[in-house]
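Service request form, structural biology core

Requester: graduate student, group of Dr. S.
Request type: structure prediction, single chain
Budget code: on file
Notes: please return the result as structure tokens.

Sequence provided:
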Amino acid sequence: DNAEGDNAEGDNAEGDNAEGETTTPDNTVTETIIKKRGFFAIIEQGESLANIVIERQGTFHQYVQAYTSFNPRPKDTYALTGGISAGANALWTVEADRKYTGDFTLKIFVLEEEECSYVGMAKKYRTYLTEKGVLAPTEDEKEDIPLYLETIGAINSTDRFMGVPYEIKQDLTTYENTVNMLQQLMNEAGITNVNVKMSGWVNGGMSSLVPSKIELLDELGGKEEFKKLVQFCNENGFGLFPEFEFTYIEEDELFDDFKPKKHLAKTIDNRNAYKKEYNALLQAYGYSRQGIISTNSMIGFYDSLYGCFDDYGIKNISVSSLGSDLSSDFNKDDPLNREDSKALLVKLLSKMAEQNEQVMVSGGNSYAWEYADHILGIPVENTMHLFSTASVPFLSMVIHGSINYSGTAINLAGDYETFMLKTIENGASPYFIIAYENASELKANNILSEYYSVRYSILKQTIVDTYGELNSILKYTKNLYMNSHKYLDSEYNIVKVGYSKEINAPESENEYVYYINYNMEETTIVDNGVEYTLPSLGCIVVDSNGKIVE
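Core staff response, request fulfilled:
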């Protein structure tokens, strides 16, 4: 995640560089040298049961305290409402029967001098992951940056016959629609590096069934149209990523290989587990209709599903929630704590990476990095909490040059211009969620109503213009390492980001530098003796010779 801190150039560091001379009574001169040092810790084992706690030592204290806490035996507390003998505020606490007995391991690095910054910590972490084989340089030989499109396939809707309502599958983006969009982007705008994530394309549409087989929807065109889509993408070099939901199930039907009692995860008090979602109206979390599939069942479902891939020509796979959501299972017969679930997910992702050309996930938990070729929806800004001073692209510094990634969908951003600059600052690729037709049907769906600006006919020109702007800026550094990042003003509105081919090159060896201006007015800065004028809410790219790249 993006880190937060008060000191833009020294979080978690101790001491300052200082030199001085003192004279003792016997006239001996003693020279005192204080060097900046710090520490950086990585949780190597047991991280899924850990919390990172941040405490501020008073309003005017210069530093914050950070430490880890571990929870080897989870517990949950319920309010006993409606009971005869229970008071209004009576609580019931249930503790897991099984305790985690593995290791909690922290690896601590000592930081010296210039390493004592968030940039130094990111470089340490990146080097550590590279040496372990988790990260490797990208092999994308295309000149342009990727464009990510997520298409919404079919949703549940209601129609009427002679006044009697009945449920139908409403198509939003058919297989033929997807071909038409890609042809337009390629022929009219010259955009060829496109990766398409297909959501709601199979097995019940956006209201997902268990992913144990492939049942193409006639409403979207059936098998023949899907094969035409696959062939078109293969011939033109587009990435096609059919989405399968392994973490949650919303609907169940007869003979679909799913048995709630067997395949749903259990809560601590032995109830079926369902995903909780935040309700802005009630300002509280409530249960959704989405049941949580036990990690014990996922590999079996995938094995059954993968047997169908050859029949449809599927080469890539998108498993969004496997990269972002991790759940325990307190089933009495075969319980799983979060570390157990993580081990099973790693095994599953490893199998997917071996059997498919490319794997796409969302969010990007660290256990997925070794197996993911594309990550959608990483955070490109901080939480904006009261005590946060500035946003630090820590995750982007770690994985840039090793994994292709995007921020959240640009067309769903509240502030388009600022989000564009955040995308540039993080070196992320553009990502849009779109529906070709019938987008108004989404308003009637409580869960999918968040997709409020997805109609392709309206977004088409925005997609072309946005991609053109970002590609002209970011294509120079798409395969380079982000090796420097700093704020050049006290208001944290002027950002300098540097890239180089070498994994840990110093700032002086940057091959390209981005100067980003978050101010509403044109701003002139001087850096390394050179004066640059930055447009309002804009940026410039400078090469290693200090010249602005057109």
